[in-house]
C-alpha cells in the first residue's frame, strides 16, 4: 500500500517495487527496525561527542593541565578540520555502499573502525594518539553516518508521510548519546584525566557495536543491496587509486605541506572539489531519468543553505568551547561545572523538542512547510542565535551568565530541527535509485564544508571584537535564509512532487 496517508496502526507496507517486506510498527509508531539503527547511532554519538567535548581542551591546555599546549587558533582549526573530515569521509562510505558492499555492511564495518580510533586516543600518548585516533574515528564515523541514514530510508515507502517523523525520532537517538557523552567524559577528564575520558568514549562505542550486531539481521534485504556494483577490474582499479591517495597524503604530511595551521583550508578545498565532482557525476549519469536529474538540481540550493547553516552550528565545537571556558560564568550554586557540559545543553533541547517536531510534521501532513522553507528558516534561525551573543559582547572575563548560553543554544536547537533531520530525509527522497547512499553523502558534504569553515572562522573570532564577529556572521546567515525562502517556489518545481 502506498498512499499519502499513514497505513493502519498494525502494519507498515513498504514499496513492493523495492522488494521490501511488511514491518511491524512497534517503535513509537515506526518500523521496529528503526530501534536497531537508533541504538547504534545513540552510542556512536555518545562516543563521538564525548570525545569531541574534551578534544579542543586536550589540544590547547598546557602540559601541566594534561594537554598538548597548542595555540587556541590551531586547536580550533584541527577540531574544525576533523569535523569536516568526518563528514567528508561520508563520500567514501557512501561510495563503498553503492558500488561494493551495500549500506548495512559498510555501517557494521565502520562501527568497528570507530572503536579502534577511540582506543587509540585512550591508549596512545601525545600527537601520535591524536593523529591515529582522529583519522580512524573520522573514517569510521563518516561511513556510519551516510549509511545509517540510508538504511533508515529503506524502512519507508517513498510517499510515506511518517518519514520525516521517523527521521526526527532517529535524530532523538543521536542526541541522547550527544547529551550523555560530554557529561561523562567531561567529568572524568576534570577528575581523573583526558585519557580516561577518551577511554569512556571507547567503551560507549563498544556497547553500540554489540547492540547493532544483535539486531542487524532483522533489517530489510534492500539495506544490503549494492545498487551499482563494480566489476572485478573496477575493484582493482579503485583499490590502486586508494593506495596512491593514502601514500600521497602521508608524503605531504611528512614534507610539511599538510600542517595543523593550514588543515582547515585543505579540508575546505577538498570538500568543495568533492561536492562539485559529485554533482557532476550525478547530473551526467545515464542512469538518471529526467525527474531524477531535476531533483538533483533542486538539491544544489539546499546544499548551499545547509553549508551556511553548519558553518555557524559547528562552532559549538570550535568557538563556543573557547567562549565557555573564558567568557562564561560556570558557577552553579557555588560549584563550577566543567566547560565541556555546555555541549550537553543542545542535546537536552533536541531530546525535549524532537518528539514535538515529529508530532507536528505528522499532524500537519501535506500542510507542513515545504523542505526549502524549512531550510531557509533553519539558516536564518542560527543567525538569530549569533545575534543574541551581542547582548553580552565586550565584557571581560567570565561575565556572561550561564542562562545566556542556554538561550542561545535553545535557538540553535530550533534552527537545527528545521534543517538537519529534514535534510537527512529529503536527501533520501530526492536521491536517484542507483545512487541512494551517495545522495545522502552530498548532504553530509554540506556538513563537512560547514564544519571546516567553522575552524577557519575561529581565526576571525580571535582577531575581531566579539560584537563585530557575532554581528557580521549572524547577519549574513539571516540574509541567506531569507533568500532561500524567497526562491522556494522555484526549488519546489524542480523537486518534481517531493515536498
List the helices and strands and how they pair.
Elements: E1 11-12, E2 23-27, E3 30-31, H1 34-60, H2 72-88, H3 90-101, H4 103-123, H5 126-153, H6 163-191, H7 194-215, H8 232-254, H9 263-284, H10 290-313, H11 319-327, E4 331-332, E5 335-336, H12 345-364, H13 371-388, H14 402-430, H15 436-463, H16 466-486, H17 488-495
How would you describe this protein?
The chain has 499 residues and is mainly α. It has helices spanning 34-60, 72-88, 90-101, 103-123, 126-153, 163-191, 194-215, 232-254, 263-284, 290-313, 319-327, 345-364, 371-388, 402-430, 436-463, 466-486, 488-495, and strands at residues 11-12, 23-27, 30-31, 331-332, 335-336. The chain has a 3-stranded antiparallel beta sheet, with no helix packed on it. Strands 4-5 form a two-stranded antiparallel ribbon. A hairpin with a 2-residue loop joins strand 4 (331-332) and strand 5 (335-336). Helix 6 packs antiparallel against helix 12. The chain is globular, with a radius of gyration of 22 Å. The chain starts with 10 loop residues before the first strand and ends with a helix.
Amino acid at each position: 500500500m502506498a498512499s499519502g496517508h499513514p497505513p493502519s496502526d498494525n502494519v507498515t507496507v513498504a514499496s513492493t517495487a523495492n522488494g521490501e517486506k511488511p514491518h511491524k510498527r512497534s517503535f513509537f509508531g515506526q518500523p521496529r527496525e528503526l530501534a536497531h539503527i537508533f541504538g547504534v547511532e545513540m552510542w556512536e554519538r555518545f562516543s563521538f561527542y564525548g570525545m569531541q567535548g574534551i578534544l579542543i581542551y586536550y589540544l590547547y591546555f598546557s602540559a601541566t593541565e594534561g594537554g598538548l599546549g597548542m595555540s587556541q587558533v590551531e586547536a580550533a582549526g584541527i577540531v574544525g578540520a576533523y569535523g569536516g573530515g568526518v563528514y567528508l569521509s561520508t563520500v567514501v562510505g557512501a561510495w563503498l555502499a553503492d558500488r561494493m558492499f551495500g549500506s548495512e555492511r559498510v555501517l557494521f564495518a565502520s562501527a568497528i573502525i570507530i572503536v579502534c580510533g577511540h582506543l587509540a586516543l585512550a591508549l596512545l600518548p601525545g600527537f601520535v594518539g591524536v593523529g591515529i585516533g582522529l583519522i580512524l574515528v573520522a573514517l569510521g564515523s563518516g561511513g556510519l553516518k551516510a549509511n545509517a541514514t540510508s538504511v533508515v530510508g529503506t524502512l519507508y515507502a517513498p510517499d510515506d508521510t511518517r518519514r520525516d517523523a521517523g527521521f526526527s525520532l532517529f535524530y532523538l537517538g543521536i542526541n541522547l548519546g550527544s547529551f550523555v557523552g560530554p557529561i561523562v567524559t567531561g567529568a572524568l577528564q576534570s577528575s581523573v584525566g583526558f585519557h580516561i575520558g577518551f577511554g569512556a568514549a571507547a567503551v560507549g562505542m563498544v556497547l553500540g557495536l554489540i547492540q547493532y550486531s544483535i539486531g542487524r539481521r532483522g533489517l530489510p534485504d534492500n539495506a544490503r543491496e549494492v545498487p551499482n556494483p563494480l566489476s572485478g577490474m573496477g575493484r582493482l582499479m579503485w583499490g590502486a587509486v586508494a593506495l596512491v591517495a593514502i601514500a600521497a597524503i602521508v608524503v605531504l604530511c611528512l614534507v610539511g605541506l599538510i600542517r595543523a595551521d593550514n588543515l582547515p583550508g585543505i579540508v575546505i578545498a577538498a570538500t568543495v572539489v568533492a561536492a562539485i565532482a559529485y554533482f557532476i557525476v550525478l547530473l551526467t549519469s545515464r542512469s538518471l531519468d529526467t525527474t531524477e536529474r531535476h531533483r538533483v538540481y533542486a538539491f544544489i540550493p539546499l546544499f548551499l543553505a545547509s553549508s551556511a547553516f553548519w558553518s555557524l552550528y559547528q562552532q559549538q565545537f570550535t568557538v563556543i568551547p573557547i567562549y565557555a571556558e573564558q567568557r562564561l560564568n560556570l558557577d552553579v550554586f557555588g560549584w563550577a561545572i566543567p566547560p565541556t557540559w555546555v555541549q550537553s545543553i543542545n542535546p537536552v533541547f533536541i531530546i525535549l523538542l524532537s518528539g514535538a517536531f515529529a508530532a507536528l510534521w505528522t499532524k500537519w501532513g501535506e500542510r507542513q512547510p515545504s523542505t526549502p522553507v524549512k531550510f531557509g528558516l533553519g539558516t536564518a534561525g542560527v543567525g538569530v542565535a549569533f545575534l543574541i551573543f551581542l547582548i553580552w559582547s565586550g565584557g571581560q572575563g567570565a561575565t556572561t551568565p550561564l542562562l545566556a548560553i542556554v538561550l542561545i543554544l535553545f535557538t540553535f536547537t530550533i534552527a537545527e530541527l528545521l534543517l538537519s533531520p529534514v535534510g537527512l530525509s529529503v536527501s533520501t527522497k530526492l536521491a536517484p535509485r542507483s545512487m541512494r547512499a551517495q545522495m545522502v553523502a552530498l548532504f553530509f558534504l554540506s556538513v563537512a564544508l560547514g564544519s571546516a569553515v567553522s575552524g577557519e572562522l575561529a581565526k576571525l573570532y580571535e582577531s575581531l571584537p566579539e560584537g563585530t564577529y557575532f554581528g557580521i556572521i549572524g547577519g549574513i546567515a539571516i540574509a541567506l535564509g531569507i533568500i532561500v525562502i524567497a526562491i522556494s517556489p522555484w526549488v519546489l518545481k524542480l523537486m518534481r512532487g517531493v515536498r
